[in-house]
What does this fold into?
Amino acid sequence: MQYTEKEIKRILEAHRKWLWSEEGGERAVLTGADLRRAVLTGAVLTGADLRRADFGELGRSITPDPTLRKKVASYILSHQGLLVMSHWHQDTATWRDWRKENPDAIPNGEYCDTTHCEAGWIVVFGSKDQPRILEVEDQFGTPLAAHLLCPEIPIADFYIDNEEKLEQMRELVGVNLNSA
It folds into this structure.
């Protein structure tokens, strides 16, 4: 299904209202939608139906990484203070410059004095092996980029609070919750 830019904006605005239980809200149903040219950066897609949506060649260029979620969780759990689920970075130029200068390094939060939500860390780690994920992030936003790398994580999980996310991560890596 092909939508105009205006129609996409209307659908996303109605979806935002739906999420906040505002009048005129409606869940975004973009099943099978042609989103190859859509700019979704900043859109909150929690609960949106994106099944079989076409993100074009760019979306198809990303290969899910079944090991990435656990790598990110282990890293975050071993480096306190790097996870802030409410922080969505807007200026990614700093760490992208750092990534170009240090292609094989794993960021530690010190290079740009920033923290990331889980989705942000997934994109940071995923960009090492799949640099095109940065283009996906630019066009479709961090949550969708992270979801393409780790489709086992529901987009809604990128919007939970720190404690709940840390608990999920501890469970994922097998850390005893009573001793953590």
Q: What stands out?
A: The CA atoms of residues 88 and 145 lie 13 Å apart. The chain has eight helices and no strands. Residues 68-173 form one domain.
